[in-house]
Specification:
Elements lengths: L14 H14 L8 E2 L2 H8 L3 H13 L3 E4 L3 E4 L36 E2 L10 H13 L2 H7 L9 H12 L10 E4 L2 H12 L5 E5 L4 H9 L3 E5 L1 E2 L2 E2 L1 H11 L3 E4 L13 H13 L3 E5 L13 H4 L4 E6 L11 E4 L2 H15 L4 H12 L2 H23 L13 E5 L6 H11 L1 E2 L1 E2 L13 E5 L6 H17 L8
Parallel strand pairs: 4-15, 6-7, 6-10, 10-11, 11-12
Antiparallel strand pairs: 1-3, 2-3, 5-13, 8-9, 12-13, 14-17, 16-17
The chain binds pyridoxal-5'-phosphate (PLP).
Pyridoxal-5'-phosphate binds next to helix 7.
Length: 478
């Protein structure tokens, strides 16, 4: 049993809430790990000089928030974090990557080069040729090149911010260049926004399974990152509300459209419910629209429902070319200056040459053409998946190159990924996306666009189907 005790003086409000908040915080920051037993009601009541009724009420709050489990006649235990995506809805060609994309070396004798379905990369759809022609244009304009070689305004040149506003408007977001800042990709945008909005020790929420970039950043910035329960539409409003009551988060990071890794997209009703909670509880929502760029029909962004609390980050990375390293932030006026200050201290400004190329891509509609090609390619990949994985459940979204595959018993995610690696295929196990030290979902993410051509995708998916159906029995070695 834990000897950890909440300090009542540190929390205001009713005593039962102070006790619940104290435990909630200790559980979410890992001080009290899953399986740890909380003191018996009478013991805690004596130690804190409160009634057993107050302790029962506090434990009840924690139980409703899913943070503890009460076992009748046994005690109250810290629960495993919840991120059960098993109730997600299940929905169920010719291309080649450039030659320079060398195959990965074989893992063991007898197995060919690895087929990489682990890396989250867009398909190559002629972006190299398109970039080449812009570079030739730029090379012929010495005056412009001279300008681009100089320092620029920290938020980006006016024309680059205007192009960013146009890109974001494509996703239903904003439209005013004054609210748009240019960054070096979405991860840089996220790092700057987190540093502008949060202080070390602050609590930030995210979907219980999330993009690993937020996990790494939260660790480095000493933030208390807490995972919120998700279902087939992403964040569950009731879970967000309960956890907010207990932990009073400063911000929520979320990927409401084509979520990475589950591919879930929130309905409009769900978006409104999440936005209502954020506004009521004064939570800054950091909305990641990186995967959303792929969609032809855009859902309404959360940020558009939250004019004072919504910050959007975006980039071309999953739609066209991660090597561009250009991203955009759209922020309410209150945050613009603070984020600009972080960009300045971080890198002075995003590299203007990349921003100029991005601007030309956006202004000429070239980005729309490239994304349309990307969608066609993904459609072909879905057809291959439907045939190679026939009868095997997986989740995906229209225009998503990801398959999220929950595994039937007795497979575990990491074990399945390791068996696939031995068989020559890389995928990402569910563990990679878990916030905190909770148990990993028994699932893997398959990135179809990692395959260099349709033949390799077919082969990789066939290996996945075979390995899955053969079961783990043959995998064990001493
Ligand atoms: C959801 C999500 N957001 C942001 C990023 C980072 O994008 P960028 O390459 O622009 O930094 C990724 C990359 O995997 C991602 O999946």
């Amino acid at each position: 049993m834990t000897t950890w005790l909440p300090t009542l003086a540190a929390h205001g409000g009713p005593k039962y809430q102070a006790i619940a908040r104290g435990y909630a915080r200790a559980i979410s920051n890992g001080e009290l790990p899953p399986g740890e037993r909380l003191p018996a009601h009478r013991v805690l009541a004596r130690k804190l000089n409160v009634t057993t009724g107050t302790v029962s009420r506090a434990y009840g709050e924690l139980e409703r928030a899913g943070l503890v489990i009460a076992r009748v006649g046994d005690g109250t235990y810290v629960a495993e974090p919840r991120h059960d995506a098993s109730h997600l809805n299940i929905t169920s060609a010719s291309w080649t990557r450039p030659e320079s994309d060398k195959p990965m070396p074989p893992l063991s004798p007898g197995v060919g080069p690895l087929i990489d379905l682990g890396q989250n990369v867009p398909n190559a759809v002629g972006d190299a040729r398109s970039l080449g022609s812009i570079l030739r244009e730029l090379a012929a304009d010495e005056r412009l090149i001279g300008e681009l070689l100089q320092y620029q305004p920290v938020a980006g040149q006016r024309s680059h911010r205007e192009a960013g506003a146009r890109w974001l408007a494509r996703m239903g977001c904003g439209g005013e260049p004054e609210s748009v800042l240019v960054t070096q990709g979405a991860q840089h945008a996220l790092a700057c926004v987190l540093r502008a909005v949060l202080r070390p020790g602050d609590t930030v929420f995210a979907e219980a399974l999330s993009y690993p970039g937020i996990i790494a950043l939260a660790r480095q910035l000493r933030l208390n990152l807490v995972g919120i329960e998700i279902d087939n539409e992403g964040l569950i409003p009731a879970a967000l509300d309960r956890a907010s009551e207990l932990l009073n988060p400063r911000a929520l990071f979320c990927v409401p459209t084509l979520h990475n890794p589950t591919t879930a997209t929130m309905s409009d009703t769900r978006r409104r419910a999440i936005a209502e909670i954020a506004a009521r509880r004064n939570i800054v929502v950091i909305e990641d629209l990186v995967p959303a760029a792929m969609l032809a029909q855009q859902p309404q962004p959360l940020a558009s429902l939250l004019p004072e609390h919504g910050i959007v980050i975006s980039s071309f990375s999953k739609a066209v070319a991660p090597g561009m390293r250009i991203g955009y932030v759209h922020a309410p006026p209150e945050w613009v200056g603070k984020i600009v200050a972080v960009i300045r201290s971080d890198c002075w400004m995003a590299a203007p040459l990349g921003a100029e190329i991005a601007t030309r891509w956006i202004e000429r509609g070239e980005i729309d053409r490239l994304i349309a090609l990307q969608r066609d390619r993904i459609h072909e990949q879905h057809v291959i998946a439907a045939s190679e994985l026939a009868g095997i459940p997986y989740h995906t979204g229209s225009a998503s190159a990801h398959l999220w595959m929950p595994l039937a018993e007795p497979w575990r995610g990491a074990e399945f990924a390791s068996a696939l690696r031995q068989a020559g295929v890389l995928v990402k196990p569910g563990d990679s996306f878990v916030i905190g030290r909770g148990s990993a979902p028994h699932a893997v993410r398959i990135s179809m666009s990692g395959a260099r051509n349709p033949g390799l995708l077919r082969e990789g998916l066939a290996i996945i189907a075979r390995t899955l159906l053969n079961g783990p029995e043959g995998q064990y070695s001493a």
